Amino acid sequence: MTVEVSTVIVGCGDTGVRIAARAVAAGETVLGIVRGEDSAARLRSVGGRSRRIDLDGPVGDLPACRRLVYSAPPARAQATDARMARVLEAMPGVPAHVVYISTSGVYGDCGGDWVDEARPVAPDTDRAKRRVDAERRIMGWARHAVVLRAPGIYGPGRLTLDRVRAGEPVLADRAGGWTNRVHVDDLAGIAWHMATEPPPHAIYNACDGVPTRREAYYDTLAELLGVAAPPRIDWAEARQRFSAMRLSFLAESRRLSNARLLADTRYRLVFPDYRDGILASLRGDPVLAPGY
Ligand SMILES: NC(=O)c1ccc[n+]([C@@H]2O[C@H](COP(=O)([O-])OP(=O)(O)OC[C@H]3O[C@@H](n4cnc5c(N)ncnc54)[C@H](OP(=O)(O)O)[C@@H]3O)[C@@H](O)[C@H]2O)c1
């Protein structure tokens, strides 16, 4: 297989463009698959080439590459990840390095337990079932693929500041409500690390290792913004106010361990504590250092 570009990033959005920036800085030629012109322009601004393809339709031929990072979400309202199926079919061969950005939603509700990668998947939602399908699909296609299970991604422009400033209530859920996060630049750094230094395991929780209760996270945001802590509501009121999608996230509680990531790789988190990550996000600090 003749390599035409060094790195292909499928779904080159907020995380993908940061992976692209790292790849370009390392001297790679990068092709990002995106749907819209905004993402294409952002990718070009970091030195990557873009190809606009709607993965819900025919994909056409994709170039041979050394590294494939897959970061596009599955389509809604489907039981499997048909987008990924089309992409893998369109690839001329299996690249030497394959990384898939999945979600920690595949574990389902864990009742607040600590969760490592040995825990069997137990998806509660169709959204998570599609991710399990995608994980199995890409690991079946590339036996050396690395799956990253990411929790809530935060960073500049993705902090729900308006909600906190507007004093929107949060669910009081002292019996559970454990959540996990990863800064978008750390997720990009971890993905790039995995695409360049193959780790010993196939699956990694890609998170900061500091789970908090949801309430504590919003209280921290409010404190750093200098506004009042959000009022609490109970489940009955939450069911009235929140969308079905939001309620499905609220119904899950787990504490993700990143011990395997830290033990197996040289990657060191730029933001091991979300408080520092929020402060940097509020300042809009650019973070393109590889993180180790
Ligand atoms: N949000 C979270 O907290 C969270 C948590 C865990 C995992 N994840 C997953 O982690 C991955 C990276 O997250 P992110 O926030 O960086 O995602 P993002 O910014 O939304 O980027 C997703 C990319 O996929 C592309 N895409 C979506 N639908 C497409 C289609 N039909 N055809 C072609 N391209 C399509 C988008 O292209 P356009 O921008 O051009 O439309 C974009 O480049 C995603 O798969 C996301 O679902 C997210």
Task: Draw up the topology in text.
Layout: E1 5-10, H1 14-25, E2 30-34, H2 37-45, E3 49-52, E4 65-70, H3 82-90, E5 97-103, E6 114-115, H4 126-141, E7 146-150, E8 152-154, H5 161-165, E9 170-171, E10 178-179, E11 181-183, H6 184-196, E12 203-205, E13 212-213, H7 214-225, E14 232-233, H8 235-241, H9 244-250, E15 255-256, H10 259-264, H11 274-283
Parallel strand pairs: 1-2, 1-4, 2-3, 4-5, 5-7, 6-15, 7-12, 8-11, 9-14
Antiparallel strand pairs: 10-13
Helix pairs in contact: 1-6
Report on this structure.
- This protein is of the alpha/beta class.
- 36% of the residues lie in helices and 18% in strands.
- The protein has helices at residues 14-25, 37-45, 82-90, 126-141, 161-165, 184-196, 214-225, 235-241, 244-250, 259-264, 274-283, and strands at 5-10, 30-34, 49-52, 65-70, 97-103, 114-115, 146-150, 152-154, 170-171, 178-179, 181-183, 203-205, 212-213, 232-233, 255-256.
- The strands form five sheets. A seven-stranded parallel beta sheet has the order 3-2-1-4-5-7-12, sandwiched between helices. Strands 6-15 form a two-stranded parallel ribbon.
- The longest helix has 16 residues, at 126-141.
- The structure holds NADP nicotinamide-adenine-dinucleotide phosphate.
- NADP nicotinamide-adenine-dinucleotide phosphate (NAP) is lined by residues 11-16, 34-36, 39, 53-56, 71-73, 101, 103, 150, 152-153.
How would you sum up the global shape? globular
Count of helical regions: 11
First and last CA, distance: 32 Å
> Would you tell me the overall average pLDDT?
93
Helix percent reads 25-40%
Q: What gyration radius follows from the Cα positions, in whole Å? A: 19 Å
Order of helices and strands: EHEHEEHEEHEEHEEEHEEHEHHEHH
**Reading side by side through the largest sheet, how are the strands ordered?**
3-2-1-4-5-7-12
Largest sheet: 7 strands, parallel
Percent strand: 15-25%
Question: Low-confidence segments, ≥5 residues, pLDDT <50?
Answer: none
Number of E strands: 15
Enumerate the distinct ligands: NADP nicotinamide-adenine-dinucleotide phosphate
Structural class: alpha/beta
